[in-house]
Amino acid sequence: MNLGRALAYFPTFARICFRSRLGVFMTLIFPGMLILVFGAIFTNTGSTRVPLSVENLDHNSPLSQQFLAGLNATGVVSVSLVSPTVGNLSDYVTHNSLVAGLVIPQGFGATLTNRSPVRLLLFTNPSSAVAAGEVQGAVQGVANGMDLRIAGGSPLVTYVDLNAGGHIFTVIDYLVPGLIGFSVLVSPMMQMVNLSSTWKREKLFRELSLTPLSRGEWLFATLLWYVVLALVSTVLLTGLGTLLFGAHVTLTPLALPFLIVGPVLFVSIGLLAGTVSKTPEVAGMIGNVITFPMMFLSGTFYPVSMFPSWLVPVAHALPLYYLIDGLNASLLFGNVSTALTDLVIVTILAAAFAFAATQAFTWREERGRVLPRRSVTHDGARGPAAI
Amino acid sequence: MIRLAFDAYERRKVKRQNSPATLTHEPAREGGPAHVRSTTPVIEVSHLEKTYGKVHAVNDVSFDIRGGEVFSFLGPNGAGKSTTVEILEGLRDRTGGEVRVLGLDPWTHFDQVKARIGVIPQDFHFFPKLTPREAIRLYARLFNAKVDPDELLARVELTDKADDYYDTLSGGQHQKVGVALSLVNDPEVCFLDEPTTGLDPRARRSIWAVIRRLRGEGRAVLLTTHYLEEAQQLSDRIGILNFGQVIAMGSPSAIISKFGRPERIRIVGDPLIAARLKPLGLSMTQADGEVEVELHSKNDALPILQTVSMSGLQWESFSTVNDSLEDVFIRMVGHLEEGTSTAPMRGEVAA
After folding, report:
1. Looking at residue B12, what is its pLDDT?
2. Which tens digits make up the pLDDT trace of B35-56?
3. Which of A270-274, A293-297, A344-348 has the highest mean pLDDT?
4. Does B349 touch chain A (CB under 8 A)?
5. Which residue of B has its CA nearest to A383?
6. Domain total in chain B
7. Which of A109, A186, B23, B44 has the least CB density, counted as fewest CB within 10 Å?
């Protein structure tokens, strides 16, 4: 392989990709947009409060006020009072698509003062089951605390909430490595699937094959471009996450191998899919079938630990999972052993797919394997004066 | 054994190439510039075979081409033209026979051969978002050639489109980009596979001018085309391929002379004229108010004219008619496609 020739071709390939608006969008703009959107949503989480509408029919009672103050103090719910004139709170919650509504009955304070049982009414919206669960937990917790105080007791079992590793990791922290993995996946996969099938149809590989550029040199320049893109998008996403949303991500040398081997892996898969497909349309379909499940099931947007147990093995079967896990280990936790394990897996997968892609990808007839012969009907359809 | 003999032949050839080329000066043709033609073949094809499974795409094809010569392959779709050209370019392996381009086997010496040839593939495409100037610079870097893009673009009359993206150019301009790129490495042999297909007449003639210039510069040009007029205008020699076999080879005039019908007199006029001419005993065809009478010699014309004149029948025009290359091509290919014996319509003629 002539490195000089590969580097001579590199700027042209970069120009071709850069001038393809889809490529720039998928590589830089789309991940940037995602981090802005998700960052805006999840900034300072998990302190996002669930709105709780409260109909306080005992509003003059200090105990009911204490109860509401206790709810607000949980940090889980955000109490908003509704007028008793709204009528049935259950209907009110449903008609206004609220997460939950709580009724504090009349005589709440007096009943508690007499140490008699009192019943709160909590209406939750089944369509917001997760948030409703959080409300239930908060209401139950505040009620238990109030019970204990009125009974004159104090809690025996307490706990201190500490973050592992001494850092406070928020959703945005996990999103940065996830979106880096996303950009390492999407741009090479989508572009290579499209490029390899389209260039094959347009005979552009054939055109290049008639220059001194070799297949290996072309592949090297292509990989180099996607490694550069991976580095740029890593810096961009880390910068946006850190500067705008206070993400706790540390760029370490341990992440670098992932940003090299990752593009090799997904360029190879994309090249293989594009090469074996007969038409760009089929290639695009195969690319989507590979990319989309991987994008959502590898821990890009949600940690795999939150998946249902039956889905976890599926995630573990996807190459992107190991890339994102390795990026988490290197960028967030500084966990060298996990990062190295993930790196070995990604490297083996990259080598296997690179081998398969180079076997399938030819740009002139190989001995024992002929290029498809030109179709006569195709010629005839194109020629204006077929004789 | 054959391989050893051919290797020895190749070594002799390399020696020959290292010595000064044997050149002959030829007069200008078709209004083109006088040019230099090498007597040493730059392309040699001997009993070439190519099969795809049971399909015999190229069957025992032999020819050679010299520098400064335009050689055209004609044939219907699927005749084996492009397969032959791609074997010569080194893009496809052959099943049998021998091929030498500039003294080298293009399959085993692909890198050396492609450094010395220029190719415009059939249905040429290039990267949509590159400009012609950028494309030439890229090729110059890859070939390690010192090329002035402006000079090359001027040669193919593309100066005003030098900085436009390829996908904004017209079909003719696309082909000109292809021609310019094929010349970056100053090739000794140019393969032009249907370079004018789909172009309007003006763009086609512009490409013709480039081809004539290549010929004038002493380069060998192998042209495949669907356009018979193009082949007749540009070619020193023509090979007609059908079903993978060469069914005729020679200069356009020689092919017409050998395979065309005799010169004819065409008379447009009264339909009864044909009946009056019958006693002359000449072969005749009659259709659409026209009579065509074959001339065995120029002297046959006089009695025909006298007979028509003395008949008193109305006539509008007399003209002489010769077969064009297209007439010959259709007759030859038509015969074969209908399953008629190939023997009478096959052969090589002196240029």
Report:
1. 41
2. 555 668 999 999 999 998 888 8
3. A344-348
4. no
5. B197
6. 2
7. B23
Residues of B in contact with A9 (CB under 8 A): 138, 141-142
- Could you give the CA distance from residue B130 to residue B119 in angstroms, rounded to a whole number? 19
CB-side neighbour CA atoms (13 Å) of A121: 12
Out of A8, A9, A212, whose CB is closest to B111?
A212
Minimum-distance CB partner of A213 among B91, B127, B142: B142
Q: Mean pLDDT, to the nearest integer, of B138-165? A: 92
Is some CB atom of chain A closer than 8 A to the CB atom of B146? no
Task: Decide if pLDDT at B337 tops 70.
Answer: no
Residues of A in contact with B90 (CB under 8 A): 364
**Tens digit of each residue's pLDDT (9 = 90 or more) over B265-306:** 899 988 888 888 888 888 888 887 788 888 888 888 888 988
In a domain, B102, yes or no: yes
- A291: amino acid identity, one letter: T
Q: How does DSSP assign A234-297, residue by residue?
A: HHHHHHHHHHHH-------GGGHHHHHHHHHHHHHHHHHHHHH-SSHHHHHHHHHHHHHHHHHH
Is B134's Cβ below 8 Å from some Cβ in A? yes
CB pairs under 8 A between A and B: 100
Question: What integer is the mean pLDDT of B181-210?
Answer: 87
* CA of A224 vs chain B CAs: smallest distance (Å): 18
State the ipTM, two decimals: 0.73
C-alpha to C-alpha distance for B111 and B114, rounded to whole angstroms:
5
Alpha carbon separation from A293 to A35, A144, B346 (Å, rounded)? 20, 44, 62
CATH code for the domain of B228: 3.40.50.300
Quote the minimal CA–CA distance from B200 to chain A in Å. 10
Cβ of A376 and B77 within 8 Å? yes
Q: What pairing do the DSSP bridges indicate for beta strands A121-124 and A100-104?
A: antiparallel
- The answer to whether position B177 is within a domain reads no
**B125 part of contact set with chain A, CB < 8 Å:** yes
Q: Strands, DSSP E only, in chain A?
A: 50-56, 77-81, 100-104, 121-124
What average pLDDT does this structure show over B96-107? 94
This prediction's pTM: 0.73
Contact B114 A212 (CB under 8 A): yes
Is position B350 within any domain?
no
Domains in chain A: ranges and CATH: 3-42+170-364 (no CATH), 50-150 (3.40.1710.10)
Please check whether residue B143 touches A, CB under 8 A.
yes
Q: Which residue segment(s) compose the domain that B199 sits in? A: 2-116+187-251
| A367 vs B contacts (CB less than 8 Å) | 93
* Average pLDDT score over residue span A345-373: 77
Assess whether B67 and B193 both reside in one domain: yes
Could you tell me if B17 and B95 lie in one domain?
yes
Instruction: Using CA coordinates, name the residue in chain B closest to A364.
Output: B91
Interface test with B, best of A211, A366, A378 (most B CBs within 10 A): A211
Residue with tokens 């040699």: B44
The per-residue pLDDT for B141 is 94
Q: Is the pLDDT of residue A334 over 50?
A: yes
